[in-house]
Design goal:
Layout (H helix, E strand, L loop, with lengths): L2 H27 L6 H28 L7 E7 L2 E22 L5 E6 L6 E2 L4 E5 L2 H36 L5 H34 L1 E3 L4 E3 L9 E2 L7 E16 H7 L8 E7 L11 E5 L9 E8 L11 E18 L4 E3 L2 E7 L5 E5 L1 E6 L2 E6 L6 E3 L12 E5 L4 H10 L1
Parallel strand pairs: 1-20
Antiparallel strand pairs: 1-19, 2-9, 2-13, 3-5, 3-8, 4-7, 5-6, 7-9, 9-12, 10-13, 11-12, 13-18, 14-15, 15-16, 15-19, 17-18
Helix pairs in contact: 1-2, 3-4
């Protein structure tokens, strides 16, 4: 017995129960009446029965749902689009140059000359180390240079004198050779004294720690008055923000989807998707591709560079990168809401020529904006349902309303091509 017949019988039994109660009340109220009135009583009872049955029948017809009513749905017509492989992955930004600022001479940190966290230019002074010891060392080196100059002058005079005496045979050849050797030693010592002066001047210049490139400074790790050691103490960091680099990787399976090893030649475009979901206005360029798969992670390490003149992107941010590469292929682009998931995989609802819903398994690729790339399962001309999905089931009759191809899909396909 169907549910419909079961509820119909229940409603009829309820009507009969009401009728029985009414008849019993009527008879009790008319027990003193004569036999002549019985015919009228029977007539009234039959009338009540008819009215109750009519009321029950009308209630049944009023409550009967319209099961054959078609559901209005919006559909799009599947059209193939030729595009290369496009995949997205998580990435992290880093400065194109991330420099550790360390002193080249040791001493007492005399003063910090910059504002922490602010941008600086190449050559701008950052720290000042107490210069007095190095000024003294420079003065000492210059004094030694002056002394050596005097010794060279004296050695030259001796060499000239010995050469003249040798010409007149007043001295031996050995005496002249000794004078000549003393001159050469004095000249060599003079060169060493000049180098010591240059090194003293260089050390004095190192007491002013300068920015090697344009960038943004970090927090100072030493306070004024602290003792710092040469080439060891980390004073601060300097990060170059423009251009900005983005590091990411693809698994070996994803690399296979691209058609093999990725490099600067076969990558068509690199796009960055910001944490808020918007796409960065500047297109990137691949500037590093590992020559092998990392044996520990099973991925190919990659890096792209983006212009960041307004410093909108900061190092350390987590973003997404969309890489387009490989050969062109025919695929279909449908809205994400049209692709559903079951125990057997992903599927879409399509409408046949009789406006009947059919469930079509598909192989989905990656996302492009708000759309799915369908690699297999659709063919040109298929009508794909994009709304009222929760009301649908295979075999359901619907009233399809055609929608034009979404602008987002066209723009996504155009940008990739």
């Amino acid at each position: 017995m169907t549910n419909k017949k079961f509820f119909t019988i229940l409603r009829q039994l309820e009507c009969l129960r009401v009728l029985k109660v009414l008849v019993s009340i009527f008879i009790r109220n008319n027990e003193p009446c004569h036999l002549i009135k019985m015919e009228s009583t029977h007539f009234i009872c039959y009338g009540l029965v008819g009215l109750i049955l009519i009321a029950c029948g009308n209630n049944e017809s009023a409550q009967k749902p319209r099961l054959d009513q078609a559901i209005a749905v919006t559909v799009i017509t599947a059209e193939s689009v030729s595009m290369p492989v496009s995949l997205e992955t998580i990435a992290q930004t880093e400065g194109a140059k991330e420099i550790e600022i360390r002193p080249r001479v040791g001493g007492i940190l005399h003063k910090r000359l910059y504002t922490e966290g602010m941008a600086v230019e190449a050559g701008q002074s950052l720290f000042l180390i107490d210069p007095e010891p190095f000024q003294n060392a420079l003065a000492e080196a210059k004094a030694g240079l002056l002394e050596q100059n005097v010794r060279v002058v004296r050695a030259k005079s001796d060499e000239i004198r010995q050469r003249q005496l040798l010409a007149e045979n007043f001295v031996s050849q050995r005496a002249y050779d000794l004078a000549k050797a003393d001159l050469a030693i004095a000249e060599s010592a003079l060169q060493a004294a000049k180098v010591r002066v240059q090194q003293a001047e260089l050390n004095l210049s190192y007491t002013t720690v300068k920015a090697p490139v344009n960038g943004v400074t970090g927090r100072s790790l030493f306070s004024e008055g602290a003792l710092v050691s040469a080439n060891n103490s980390l004073l601060t960091t300097l990060t170059q923000l423009s251009p900005i680099w983005v590091r990411f990787s693809f698994s070996d399976n994803e690399v296979a989807q691209f058609g093999g090893h990725l490099n600067e030649k076969n990558v068509r475009s690199v796009r960055m998707i910001l944490p808020d979901g918007s796409e960065y206005q500047q297109e990137g360029k691949l500037n590093f591709a590992a020559s092998k798969i990392d044996p520990l992670l099973g991925t190919q390490q990659l890096r792209a560079t983006f212009e960041n003149s307004d410093q909108h992107i900061l190092p350390g941010q987590f973003v997404r990168v969309r890489v387009t590469a490989g050969e062109f292929r025919d695929v279909y682009v449908v809205p994400q809401v049209a692709v559903l998931t079951s125990d057997l995989g992903r599927f879409v609802y399509v409408i046949n020529e009789k406006n009947v819903v059919m469930q079509r398994p598909v192989i989905a690729g990656d996302w492009i904006g708000k759309d799915w790339i369908i690699l297999d399962g659709l063919k040109a001309g298929d009508r794909v349902v994009i709304d009222n999905m929760i009301k649908l089931m295979p075999g359901k009759v619907v009233d399809p309303q055609l929608q034009d191809t979404s602008p987002s899909s066209q723009s996504n396909a155009a940008s990739i091509n």
